[in-house]
Amino acid sequence: MHGKTENTVITYKKTSNIIEDARTIINSARSSAVRSVDFCRVQMYWNLGKRIFEEEQQGKERADYGTYLVKNLEKEYGSGFGERQLERARQFYRLYQIPSALRTELN
Length: 107
What we know:
With 107 residues, the chain is an all-alpha fold. Helices cover 72% and strands 0% of the residues. Helix 1 (18-57) crosses helix 3 (83-95).
């Protein structure tokens, strides 16, 4: 899955209440930031799942890539990249192998 997040312009309609305008600006920016982070995480897990799946298709046993990958990723990035999470990433890729299908589902 290749793609870029769109640059989001934070807009608001100026009112006579600066506090409300500030709230609108802050809330809009926060919401945009969350969507950007979520999109990046989806891309990360999709690409990770794709890479694991590609390795698996080369005749490697699951334990071979799993042990090596889990040991290294967990050591570097923590328990969020353990065996269970990597298996979920692989399943995620298997479910949405076509990037346009994933984009459609996310929209």
